[in-house]
Design a protein that fits this description.
Largest sheet: 5 strands, mixed
Radius of gyration: 46 Å
Oligomer: single chain
Helix content: 10-25%
Distance between the termini: 132 Å
Subcellular location: Cytoplasm
Number of strands: 37
Organism: Equus caballus (Horse)
Structural class: alpha+beta
Keywords: Coiled coil, Cytoplasm, Repeat, WD repeat
Number of helices: 19
Strand content: 15-25%
InterPro entries: Dynein_IC, WD40/YVTN_repeat-like_dom_sf, WD40_repeat_dom_sf, WD40_rpt
Protein name: Dynein axonemal intermediate chain 3
Length: about 850
């Protein structure tokens, strides 16, 4: 039956699409016969297709004039005939023109076919009898009602009730009337006896009941009149409380059991701990990444690439990507007028809907990096190509993205519509969200922002770079680096400034805030200035290093389970009272600084250098101006721009840097160089990321669309696996752990496609004691570097000693006398003559028997 309906829909769709071209050329004799539903037992029903314009002409618009309660409309016959004269064959009633002309009545019944039972969205009733039967339909038999009860109803989505003020509607009077109350006063009896009657002696004895008169009374049966009385019914309210009882227990055994559970795990299986468990999820032989899903948007990602990817910290299957136009700097300048018409967006994708983005965050220019706030995932900060920082607040749309999964379970009746009748679903269209604040253009970065980080909610800094305790409990500061050779620290709280003049107040009061823009960071909009600015000087020259990536001492690489619960609880509190709504200036000037905090961090530059420096500022002794400290160490390791500087999620002092054609692993505090430096790869590296579950694994994306998977426990000189993902350059890699049995990695490419790959068992589950093994490996590399440094010092010392010996030998040379020089010359001449004689003898020019010397011959 379903196949027949589909064929009928496609045939009707072909008719409607060709109607405007073929109908005007047909004559009256060539008109097609109107099709009815005689095959389904309803010869009086004629399906028709009514477009939106026709619905407006005859006042039969869906969900406005025609609803589920009244799905029909009576249309005058003369109005339809007038439509034939006005629009001729273009009229949607033209296929049933003959039926309308032959209709005996004045009003024709038009019914809305919501479920497409007869193939199209409307149908006409071609007889008066059918119209009366529809309008005066008989009652449904009980059998049909029972059949309808078995039809599954649509799944209802539970929505938590919202507390509202109580409005009295008179129900409290009914409750008051039904409550149990004492209506009459209690009667009190007092019985007393004289005191001398207490304690009198008593003597009992047996007595024969038959010998004494009235010794016993017989109770004979008689009819009870109370059973014949009828009691009036009345409403009585009762209130029952649970029985209360006292229970005591001995808690000493429970206390001992709790202590044992805290000391050790009593339920552990020692036999299984001897070896790795085999009955785990997945196939151990499978080592390749499997594609799980892919996302692309042909409308918003045309000729654009993905610049940054970030998973939502707490919502399963929600990922955000930022996009930018694939143009060079010269092309951007040339097409700057055209680029202003294209929106710069951050798209939110969901696993439940791979076609339509859920949210779209608008920005003034292309975003190249963005991060979710660790203390509130509804706050997002991003860096633009023009050097501005953009802030978004999606708290008002939190329910929309949290209920994405439930929104996908809808009725399947919608899929039965023909394709030419499907109108764009308003619920499927992504919601555009405007930014709520941007930084000042004059006081911010002058070039593209390449990296952005939220400072943790445990500390904050002042303009000197001194670290203080953050008592607000929320992340309030950011750090960014840009291609203009600066690193800036930003504070999102309002700063205490001088009181503005009355003219400035009037200007501020005249600004109107759009209704769809939250006022969370209104105090920052176009007036946000950096709290502190750092320049990495190259020393004696006037040039500065150009930072591309930074890594602080505390990076939020992975949200643990308890961190997710904490973020969800904070997000729930945000719904009641958003802490970012009432921000106050920092208390750094009133708190005691933290001297034990490490303020040093790693920086990767555009020239391939890795710098270890300090963000604290110092005053110049001559000018008194704040200056950046000199870098602690600087290494030129990479042969291209560094695009990844990332700390290991298992070791806080291990840093991964990727740039150009090689990879390096560093240990904080080791100043002799990298622990591991790979050889040049066949293709240039473009992105990379540590594994979140295995300490010795990291992923690297290449410009040819391959991913190199490095496993340091297996190989340290080459990648353990290389796999092709796409045909173009990989721009970003971001793994994420959803459960103990399922992990994904997001791979973005140059053509704007986001690939979601499932990580196999071997790459997601660490082996036994892998953390300790990697720790031993890093310790061995540190010792190896120390040995190399010692041998270098020894070689330098040996070289110095050799040079001293050579100088001593030269100093021992003295001036020879004339006689000694003549003797030496004579000896050299005689040796020459001896050599000459031997050569002549070998040539046969002189016989051996001749012993006459050459001097005698002379």
């Amino acid at each position: 039956m379903a196949s027949k309906l589909q064929k009928r829909k496609s045939s009707s769709g072909q008719k409607t699409s060709k109607r405007g071209k073929n109908r005007p050329t047909l004559t009256v004799g060539e008109e097609e016969e109107p099709t009815n539903m005689e095959s389904l037992g309803h010869p009086e029903i004629y399906p028709v297709v009514l477009t939106t314009k026709t619905q407006e002409i005859f006042n039969c618009r869906i969900d406005e004039d025609i609803t589920d309660e009244q799905p029909y409309k009576l249309i005058k016959k003369e109005d339809i005939l007038a439509d034939f004269q006005n629009r001729a064959a273009v009229s949607d009633f033209y296929p049933v023109k003959k039926v309308i002309q032959e209709y005996p009545g004045d009003e024709i019944l038009l019914v809305y076919d919501k479920d497409f039972k007869y193939g199209l969205n409307f149908y006409l009733v071609g007889t008066e009898e059918g119209k009366e039967n529809y309008l005066n339909a008989p009652e449904i038999p009980e059998e049909q009602e029972e059949y309808k009860e078995h039809i599954p109803e649509e799944i209802c989505i539970y929505k938590a009730p919202i507390s509202k003020p109580w409005v009295s509607l008179g129900s409290e009077k009914e409750i008051e009337e039904e409550s149990v109350k004492e209506s009459t006063k209690k009667i009190t009896y007092m019985i007393s006896r004289k005191r001398h009657q207490f304690g009198a002696p008593i003597k009992f004895s047996d007595q024969n009941a038959s010998s004494v008169k009235d010794a016993y009374i017989e109770c004979t049966a008689y009819p009870d009149k109370n059973f014949t009385l009828r009691q009036l019914e009345k409403d009585i309210g009762m209130q029952v409380v649970p029985e209360v009882k006292d229970i005591s227990t001995q808690t000493r055994c429970v206390e001992i059991a709790l202590q044992q559970n805290e000391i050790m795990n009593t339920f552990i299986d020692d036999w299984k701990c001897l070896a790795e468990e085999e009955g785990t999820f997945g196939d151990k032989t499978d080592t390749h990444l499997k594609e799980y899903q892919s996302f692309t948007d042909l409308h918003n990602l045309t000729e654009k690439m993905i610049t940054c990817v970030s998973w939502h910290p707490v919502i399963y299957g929600l990922i955000a990507v930022s996009v930018a136009v694939r143009l060079s700097f010269e092309d951007r300048v040339h097409f700057s007028g055209k680029l202003l018409l294209q929106p710069s967006l951050i798209l939110f994708w969901s696993f439940s809907d791979p076609i339509h983005p859920q949210l779209m965050l608008e920005s003034p220019d292309d975003i190249f990096c963005f991060k979710f706030c660790p203390s509130d995932p509804n706050i997002i900060a991003g860096g633009c190509i023009n050097g501005q920082i953009v802030m978004w607040d999606i708290t008002a749309h939190a329910d929309r993205i949290e209920n994405i999964k439930t929104g996908g379970s809808r009725s399947k009746k919608v899929t039965l519509k023909p394709m030419f009748l499907l109108e764009p679903d308003s619920n499927k269209e992504a919601m555009y969200i405007r930014h709520c604040a941007v930084s000042s253009i004059e006081n911010g970065h002058k070039h593209v922002i390449t990296d952005i980080h939220w400072l943790p909610d445990t500390f904050e800094i002042n303009r000197m770079g001194t670290v203080f305790e953050n008592r607000s409990g929320i992340c309030c500061q950011l750090v960014t680096c840009s291609a203009d050779c600066t690193i800036c620290f930003w504070d999102i709280r309002p700063q205490k400034a001088l009181t503005p003049q009355p003219t400035e107040k009037k200007k501020d009061e005249s600004i109107e805030i759009p209704f769809d823009v939250p006022s969370t960071f209104l105090h920052l909009d176009l007036a946000w200035k950096p709290l502190s600015k750092i320049r990495l000087s190259k020393g004696e020259t006037s040039l500065d290093h150009c930072p591309t990536k930074i890594s602080l001492s505390e990076d939020h690489l992975q949200y643990k389970a308890q961190d997710k619960m904490l973020a969800q609880s904070k997000a729930a509190k945000v719904g009641d009272m958003n802490p970012y709504q009432n921000l106050e200036g920092g208390l750094a000037n009133h708190l005691k600084p933290r001297e034990d905090f490490c303020t040093k961090f790693f920086v990767g530059t555009e020239e391939g250098e890795v710098i270890y420096t300090d963000w604290k500022m110092e005053r110049d002794s001559e000018t008194g101006r704040l200056m950046t400290k000199k870098p602690v160490s600087l290494y030129t390791v990479h042969d291209g721009a560094v695009h990844t500087v990332q700390r290991s999620p298992f070791y806080k002092d291990i840093i991964l840097t990727i740039g150009g054609w090689n990879v390096a692993i560093w240990k904080e505090g080791v100043m002799t160089g990298p622990l591991l430096q790979t050889s040049c790869a066949p293709k240039r590296y473009t992105s990379g990321h540590w594994s979140l579950t295995r300490p010795g694994v990291f992923y690297i994306g290449r410009e040819d669309g391959y991913i190199d998977i490095w496993d340091l426990l297996e190989k340290t000189h080459e990648p353990a696996l290389s796999q092709n993902i796409c045909i173009t350059m990989i721009t970003c890699i971001k793994p994420w752990t959803f459960s103990a049995k399922q992990q994904f990695i997001a791979v973005a490419d140059y053509y704007g496609t986001l690939h979601i790959l499932e990580i196999p068992w071997t790459l997601s589950h660490p082996s036994a004691n892998e953390v300790l093994s990697m720790n031993y490996y890093f310790e061995r590399e540190v010792k190896h570097l120390e040995y190399v440094d010692q041998r270098k010092k020894i070689r330098e010392q040996e070289k110095k000693e050799m040079q001293l010996e050579m100088e001593k030998k030269k100093a021992k040379t003295y001036q020879k006398s004339k006689e000694q020089l003549e003797a030496e010359l004579k000896m050299d001449y005689e040796s020459y003559l001896e050599l000459e004689r031997s050569i002549l003898v070998n040539l046969g020019l002189i016989k051996v028997s001749e012993k006459v010397s050459y001097m005698e011959m002379m």
